[in-house]
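Reopening closed ticket. The problem is back. First fold of the pair:
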Amino acid sequence: MRVSLVEPGAVSSGFVANAGAGVDVDVDVDVDVPTMVAAAGAHSPALANYVARTTAAFSPAAAQTPAGAAAAIVELLLAETPALRIQASDGARAFVGRKLADLDGSAVFTETLGWVS
C-alpha cells in the first residue's frame, strides 16, 4: 500500500461560499457576513480580517481551479511511484516551503497570525 499527502492550497470552489465568506462561485448561500461579524462581539475584528483574507485567497483570480487540483491528484494516482507528498498549486508549494524552512515555527506563526489580526 502506498500513501500520499496532497496539499492543494486554496481552491476556488463552493467551500468558502458555504462558509459564508461571500466568494462569488456557483453556490447559492444566503449568509449576511456583516451580521455574522457583528455578532462575534470581541472577536469581530479577527473574524473580519479572516473573512477578508479568505475571500481574497479563495477568489477565482487567486486560487487554483477545482480542475487544476483534480489534475494534480489524477497525475499522482497514475504515477508508477507516487510521491509521498505533493502540493497541487504554486501557492501551496510556496507555503510548504516556508513551513519546512522555519525550524522553530516562528515565521509561520507570525504569517498565519496576520490572517486574523
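Second fold of the pair, where the issue appears:
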Amino acid sequence: MVERLARQLRPVGAALAWRALGFRRLFILALCHNDLPDPMHGKAGQKEELDHPERGGLRATTE
C-alpha cells in the first residue's frame, strides 16, 4: 500500500518541481544529474569549521 501511494505521489511532486522552477528544463536537468551529497555529520573537518567561524566555517557572519 505504501509503495502504491509513493508511486502515485511521485508525478505530483514532479509537477510541483516543474512549476516551482518556472518550467525551465536546464534547471531540472542540472538538479537530476548531480550526485547526492554525503552526510555532513562526523566529517573530519566539521569540528574545526564550527570552532573557527572566521575561517569560513558554518557559523560565519555575513556583513
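Update: turned out to be a display glitch only; the data is intact. The first helix runs from residue 2 to 20. The radius of gyration is 19 Å. Please close again.
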